[in-house]
Amino acid sequence: MKYVDVKAYFSFLMFMVFGASLATGINQNGVFAYVSGFGREEYTQAIMAGQGVAGVLPCVVQIISALAVPERKGQNMPQASSKSAFMYFITATAIAAISLVAFLSLVRRRSGTSLQLPEEQHDSISSGYAHKTVSLWVLFKKLRFLASALFLCFAITMVYAVFTAEIESVHQNPNRSRLFSREVFIPVAFLFWNAGDLIGRMSVIIPSLSLAHRPWVLFVISVTRLGFIPLYLLCNIGGRGAIVQSDFFYLFVVQLLFGVSNGYLGSSCMMGAGQWVSVDEREAAGGFMSMVLVGGLAAGSLMSFLVANI
């Protein structure tokens, strides 16, 4: 395995990445459509919050694994990378297993509830919530502001990863704390963003903070997030020096607030979709909004290649 052909390994890796991405997209679309059929916003919010937690945990694992390995140079770097990758795999596998068990439990509980209903009531519910075919154009016309806000939100968000992977601490003193070293500081920056994202996703639990009833406001806020991109240019990209000599500015003003805005907008748009369609269109609307979300991520990923050359 040490001398595997590079082309064969790269092809295998790309195939696995494609398969994992395909499975994730299908699973996410199905889950959003499934929970939207319940007509309960808090169920959609729970999925969004779960995704936020999934962003925080890998950062914590990476920071712990980086600090667990002595700060050495040269030959020990592959060992550190291997240890981090193994911890990632174990964490992801454990969370996936717990999620599967929880989902199977939910399906059994719903099936059991349906069996306990009288036959007439069961038939009326089944007919009332029969799957309805709705065109994407019809859904877009009803959800144009929410869908556009969601697409822009995640397209703009993908840019942050390009900068975060390159921005270093302004503290370059050799005797600095290890938290300011590149292998730890970058995961810390990702942690700040993902923590902000989780805070934003959780904040919509409070009804008074949700703007789902004003889709155009969410769209305007989504457009204004473009202003975060110039803020990244003020930071220490690639160690070339920062215009604003402050890690506090980078971590709290740029990373944390950018993450909060992403989580808030994403959750508000996904939760509000069911308010603007009829009951029999909710399931289709959930799948449609999930497709828009993935489309935004894909568009943002393509644009990030252009931004990376700045």
UniProtKB/TrEMBL annotation:
Keywords annotated in UniProt: Membrane, Transmembrane, Transmembrane helix, Transport
Listed InterPro entries: Eqnu_transpt, MFS_trans_sf
Primary localization: membrane
Pfam families xrefs: Nucleoside_tran
Compartment(s) of residence: Membrane
Secretion signal, residue range per the UniProt entry: none
GO cellular component term, pick one: plasma membrane
Membrane topology: Multi-pass membrane protein
Gene Ontology MF term list: nicotinamide riboside transmembrane transporter activity; nucleobase transmembrane transporter activity
Transmembrane segments: 7-26, 46-69, 85-107, 145-163, 184-204, 216-235, 247-265, 285-308
Family: Belongs to the SLC29A/ENT transporter (TC 2.A.57) family.
Annotated PANTHER family: EQUILIBRATIVE NUCLEOSIDE TRANSPORTER (PTHR10332), EQUILIBRATIVE NUCLEOSIDE TRANSPORTER 1, ISOFORM A (PTHR10332:SF88)
Protein name per its UniProtKB record: Nucleoside transporter family
Organism: Neosartorya fischeri (strain ATCC 1020 / DSM 3700 / CBS 544.65 / FGSC A1164 / JCM 1740 / NRRL 181 / WB 181)
